[in-house]
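Protocol check, entry for the methods section draft. Step 1: assemble the input record (protein sequence plus ligand SMILES). Step 2: submit for complex structure prediction. Step 3: store the structure tokens unaltered in the notebook. Ligand used here: pyridoxal-5'-phosphate. Step 1 record:
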Amino acid sequence: MANKLFIPGPTEVRQEVLEALATPQIGHRTEAFKKLFGGLKPGLQAIFFTKNDVLISTSSGSGFWEVSIRCCVNKRMLVATNGAFSKKYADVGEACAREVERIKYDYGKAVKPEDVDKALAKGGFEAFGMAHNETSTGVTSHMEEIAEVMKKYPDVLWFVDAVSSLGGIKLEVDKLGIDICFTSSQKAFAMPPGLSMASISPRCYEKAKEVPGKGYYFNILDLKKEYDTDQTPYTPSIPHLYALQKQLGRIMEEGIENRFQRHAEMAEYTRGWAAKHGMPLFSEEGCHSNTVTCLLNTRNLDMKKIKKEMSAQGYSIDSGYGKLNEKLEAEGKPTTFRIAHMGDLTLAEIKELTAALDPYMGG
Ligand SMILES: Cc1ncc(COP(=O)(O)O)c(C=O)c1O
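Step 3, stored output:
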């Protein structure tokens, strides 16, 4: 038996979704494919709370870092870096030869609207990128307040990495006015890795027309042209699309709001459990994530050993984001470890995990 995954991605995938991957294949230039692909749109739009297109890429979520930058930024963008993944977003901007200005935060902090305002006020930015939920630190930023700031800068596109939140934490794309919002299949969608989805606002397509060098695979204009006829420019991973069809059905059956509520309950329970053991959280007060809890290992527990012993009992847990822990260790500070409560996991399963962890917590 494989271990049950309590790591912040890939997350646990239920048997019927795994079975959907084994659906006999069809050609991707057939009516059957169009029916499959086109049928995914309403469910995705519901989960993204958008009327915009939700493009599907059979790449992991990192692909949409490149999409947003290579299709919609000619020269200069702003990125808020408050953890390892948002930092990577900024790094990708530079790897694509764009000028990137960073709003740098200490890890564990959320993105603050006043900082975004101050940075954007300098002018000259084509886009602002950020992570809604920093998986490395368990921090969720308050999007409504940032959305208010973005309204002051109507020429700046807003890109949101919602890789570890979308489908687990409510993020209303249209209400907030997000231009590109993207996520990966292997997080709160509780599917195998290999698929990513992004809402694209009409003004991104307009912008893309004036950006040269968009490349081939991630050109949103090509993707859009095919999307409108329920097709893809190239051969997609059809097994993943069947799995998505199955999973969207399951999500609708549960109810989207119920799904958010379940995540909130699992997170609240996990935070309570941490408090019971006197373990502080790494994330800033008021910004704790509902998909992943990041704890400070103030007791100097041997997490590597605990991880190994938990694995022997059938539970995969995370001993903290590697580079963050290395940095904390070098500074002589307590390191972190994370408990993910993301995807299709239930409160009962989280309780089962914490009961198994209890004997190791030392208090
Ligand atoms: C917030 C965030 N952004 C981006 C990524 C990269 O996504 P992927 O691994 O699907 O390419 C991750 C992966 O963990 C993530 O947590």
